[in-house]
């Protein structure tokens, strides 16, 4: 090797990082996919998946559910612990939700805390009604309104995040032609 560094070959340029070009709608799609599913949505999906399962007094398994057993297992699947009975579930949350403020995933209580269901969509709940029936989704009737004691929201942060996600979904795609990452 010659003095002064002669004879050293210049270093080859490093390979540039691969680039990805995305359109505005593709950027929005990536943003939407990064939003985690809130606990209330996991719980609701669980409860809705159990439609047709028989009511079993004291049940909290695939063989059958009573009303509070269904709520217990649905929220357990979402990582939120609930007490066993409807009255205990109601009492476990200090913040109560009014009829007019019900959102999907809220637990709704009726008949002197003798029954609980979960709001599935505006005006409907999923529940395990009584002996001889099955887990089902049903419209909140006027009779239910009269028997309503109160409601609780086991996943308030998830409800807020879902509202933000819904706003993101409704928003137009970013006003850009492309983005290279």
What does it look like?
- The protein has 181 residues and is an alpha+beta fold.
- It has six helices and nine strands.
- It has helices at residues 24-33, 39-49, 67-77, 86-91, 142-147, 156-170; strands spanning 21-22, 60-61, 64-65, 107-110, 115-121, 124-127, 136-139, 148-152, 179-180.
- The strands form three sheets. It has a five-stranded antiparallel sheet. It has a two-stranded antiparallel sheet with strand order 1-9. A two-stranded antiparallel ribbon has the order 2-3.
- Helix 2 packs across helix 3.
- It is elongated.
- The relative contact order is 0.21.
- The model has no long low-confidence stretch (mean pLDDT 87).
Q: Termini separation (Å)?
A: 42 Å
Q: Structural class given helices, strands, pairing? A: alpha+beta
Q: What is the H/E string?
A: EHHEEHHEEEEHEHE
- Number of helices in the DSSP assignment: 6
Instruction: Please tell me the overall pLDDT.
Output: 87
Number of strands: 9
**Outline type:** elongated
Whole-angstrom Rg: 26 Å
CATH architecture: Alpha-Beta Complex
Unreliable sequence segments: none
The strand order across the widest sheet is 7-6-5-4-8
Quote the CATH topology. Answer: endopeptidase fold (from Nostoc punctiforme)
Largest sheet, described in full? 5 strands, antiparallel
Q: Count structural domains.
A: 1
Oligomeric nature of the chains = single chain
CATH H-level name... which superfamily?
endopeptidase domain like (from Nostoc punctiforme)
Overview features:
181 residues, 6 helices, endopeptidase fold (from Nostoc punctiforme), single chain, alpha+beta, five-stranded antiparallel sheet
């Amino acid at each position: 090797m010659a003095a002064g560094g002669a004879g050293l070959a210049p270093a080859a340029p490093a390979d540039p990082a691969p680039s990805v070009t995305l359109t505005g709608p593709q950027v929005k799609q990536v943003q939407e996919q990064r939003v985690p599913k809130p606990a209330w949505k996991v719980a609701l999906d669980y409860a809705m998946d159990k439609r047709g399962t028989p009511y079993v007094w004291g049940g909290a398994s695939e063989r059958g559910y009573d009303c509070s057993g269904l709520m217990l297992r649905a929220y357990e699947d979402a990582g939120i612990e609930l007490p066993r009975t409807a009255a205990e579930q109601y009492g476990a949350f200090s913040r109560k939700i009014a009829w007019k403020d019900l959102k999907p995933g809220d637990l709704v209580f009726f008949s002197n805390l003798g029954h609980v269901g979960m709001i599935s969509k505006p005006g409907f709940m999923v529940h395990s009604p009584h002996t001889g029936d099955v887990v089902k989704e049903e419209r909140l009737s006027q009779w239910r309104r009269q028997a309503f004691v109160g409601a609780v929201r086991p996943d308030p942060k998830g409800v807020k995040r879902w509202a933000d996600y819904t706003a993101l979904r409704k928003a137009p795609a970013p006003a850009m032609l492309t983005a290279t990452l």
